[in-house]
Amino acid sequence: MMSVVPYVPQAQAAYVGPRPRRRAPRQRVAAKPSSGAISYRGPARLPMSTSEKALDTVQLGIYGSVASSAGGVISTVFSAGSQATSSNDWTSYQNLYQEYRILSMKVTLVPWNKNNQPTASALAPVLSITSRDSATALSTLADTATYDSVMIHDPSTRFSRTIKMDGVDEATWTLTSTTPAAAGTLYVKLYSSGNVASTTLYDYLTICVVQFRGRK
Questions:
Q1: How far out from the chain centre does Cα 106 lie?
Q2: Which of 32, 83, 92, 191 is the most exposed place for a label (fewest CB within 10 A)?
Q3: C-alpha to C-alpha distance for 87 and 50, rounded to whole angstroms
Q4: What is the mean pLDDT of residues 127-153?
Q5: Sheet holding 151-153, edge to edge
Q6: Distances 208 to 86, 163, 170 between C-alpha atoms, Å
Q7: Cα 179 to Cα 131: distance, rounded to the nearest angstrom
Q8: What pLDDT score does 19 carry?
């Protein structure tokens, strides 16, 4: 009778060659909204201006400062329409295109008291909101606190607020020849009281992502 010897697989030798290269992941590029889109979910800042067929999506910025009133109050309204059209580059795009719309606005504020101008005790906390329906400035802390979008900010650190296009009204194309208020449906508002009076308290940078079409 023949004996059966069980098969025992031999261990494979370890691989000692070079390690295979891993493919770098593809970078995802946020799609720009089409001319018929009514909402924007892309970045609040663009890596560079982009042009796709008949649409040109650009970033327009403006730098400024926020000062308190004689009573130590800050009640500031940032309108996307006026901010975008106040940019130094606005005239160039206005001369090139017939229509525009604003996809987003991001406002970043930096307090002067970081450099002890003035001292930290001269600043009070700031309330901020985003709004889509009114350019009216905020008038009291109590009213400001009732908004769904309200946030409170430490006056000794920088902070930002962003609002993006969302809805038919905001997505409507506007003639570049019209007044800035025509596209001013996106707002960021600030309110603070108890600050040092009549003093520049914050510097700000506003970044608007704007889409143009209809090259002249």
A1: 3
A2: 92
A3: 18
A4: 93
A5: 74-79, 187-192, 126-131, 151-153
A6: 11, 10, 14
A7: 20
A8: 55
